[in-house]
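Here we describe the complex-level prediction in full. Unlike the single-chain runs in Section 2.1, the two entities below were treated as one system.
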Amino acid sequence: MPAVQETVERVRRIDVDQYRYGFETLIESDKAPKGLTEDTVRFISAKKNEPAWMLEWRLEAFRRWLTMTEPQWARVHYPKIDYQDLYYYAAPKPKKQVGSLDEIDPEILKTYEKLGIPLREVEVLEGVVRPEGERKIAVDAVFDSVSVATTFQKELKQAGVIFMPISEAIREHPELVKKYLGSVVPTSDNFFATLNSAVFSDGSFVYVPPGVRCPMELSTYFRINERNTGQFERTLIIADKGSYVSYLEGCTAPQRDENQLHAAVVELVALDDAEIKYSTVQNWYPGNSEGVGGIYNFVTKRGDCRGNNSKISWTQVETGSAITWKYPSCILRGDNSRGEFYSIAISNGHQQVDSGTKMIHLGKNTTSRIISKGIAAGVSQNTYRGLVTAHRKATGARNYTACDSLLIGDKCGAHTVPYVEAKNSSATFEHEATTSKISEDVLFYCVQRGLSQEEAVGLVVNGFVKDVLQQLPMEFAVEAQKLISISLEGSVG
Amino acid sequence: MMSLLEVKDLQVRVEDREILHGLSLTVNPGEVHAIMGPNGSGKSTLSHVIAGKPGYEVTGGEILFKGEDLLEMAPDERAAKGVFLAFQYPVEIPGVATMNFLRTALNAQRKARGESEYSTPDFLKKVREVAKSLNIPQDMLRRGVNVGFSGGEKKRNEILQMALFEPSLCILDEMDSGLDIDALRIAADGVNALRSPDRAMVVITHYQRLLNYIVPDFVHVMSRGKVVKSGGKDLALELEASGYAQFEDAA
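The structure predicted for the assembly as a whole is:
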């Protein structure tokens, strides 16, 4: 049987049930009643002991949401979501304030251990000596709707960096939250962002003071555990003048037959001369071989290069989710500011990905760079959708875009939908796009040299995404490389 | 002594068309065989079937390699057992450094044979030695596999792999295609350096020219899916003078 045909056969049989993070943790949880009304919003706000202004903010968003309709323009198809059939808040019990890892429910700790995430922190807590030169990573772990642990708080505090669950920041740093929350993604932005504004329960908050280079990588791990629960986390990162921060985000969920909704909002603000690097490795449960189950991932991520000479860089490795709807974007407001988007989006089985970026050039001499690598296997559909626009006053704006798609087998699809708008004549926009297929000839060449089919595909794909992998922090690059191989397992015979 | 390669009455189809109609060939260790013939006579099909390229259906006959049934083995297994095919058109693999590719492949073969994998320093030492002997600059090893390589560089990269993997059977498929005379000489010198009493070579070519540089022990003429004549190295010269037309009817 020819390799390609074999590939197709194999993909058809593919057992996406080999999803390695598909376990469920049995813990009691504290849920809001099913459905979404003003009372749900009040319930969440009360659970978080929020001040009145925050509740008002949420309610305004909720009222706005009621008037909005779900967007239909993306190249993704799914049955209508019944927003009244979801739980909007689930907190693991006991819900007492967590001060250190010791106080966390051991079941939750075990979950994170299985994910291989908190081990680093546990090690540190246990006083394990680490090899010299290895960087530390501070972690904020969000379990269903609630942040369960933030590590390295003390060390960060010494540097003046605030890294805490956003629910705490609302209480402890209301002036910062009031000033920046919703300033990049307004409550009225889009259907999913507005929903998030009404019901978000937790997420991470980062503030890096002027001139401070954050002494370690910051990281959040999101885990959806409860059945029928939506997860709506909210992340807000502010890099004050001349500061630098690198932030990593990872996501997993258990295997479930029903679809789970994830609608997050991430807002980044970079002031003069500040830089934010935001990396994501997204591995939500993608559904099984028949396309049943999996996470619906509708995420709004946007960075505002508010100051002159500021820089925001998004790097994402997307391998999970049944549906991905996600466009991490940059508003290049400050003069000489720079936006970057590096993306690897892999779809296999029945996954549908519609992802890309927006680079909005407003300031003078702003530059942006987009490198997107889409890999489609199985019967998946993979779309890059991007907007590059230069405002009338954005003289000297420059963008370079390269979109490459790789197809494995002949039942999947790759689509590129670029929008380019230049409203002044001094803008220079370049767009390059390629679509290729892993050819039988390349695979045969590799196996003739002794590689197995799977090793061959892994090698070719890792070569294809190399430019983007290089953008990831070292620790994540290795993880991402493994994840890429795992998510393409079974895509060839 | 057991033959290294025994092809017996091989019949091969591609889709509905029979390409090889009962081909036989015996190759012993240390021998160099040239297979010549006009376009479409089935030369490349034979090399592909021996290496295990998908898309060919063997409808009759057998291939024994060191006495084992080669057709039962997956292509990567055949590679590990010592079958090496130097491609007529080596593929490009962007983003995969040649050095990384060589090491991954060599270690995959060693692992399949139950041998220990090379450590990085040992591997580097070995590659540098072989590359030097073939006049391959270090810079080429850092570039993507065959990406932006000239025709001559691609062929030299094939010979580099041949030297590195130390196969017992080398099949060279139209090695001379796309090479000028200087590049051909360098490639042929590389191949000649690998001739050894334990290693056999099957040189597939359309033109006699290559055989001035790689001198064969035996020459076989293929026409319409069969070997129609076999002889010594002089047969190639005879062909050069009289052409393939005389064999067209014999098939």
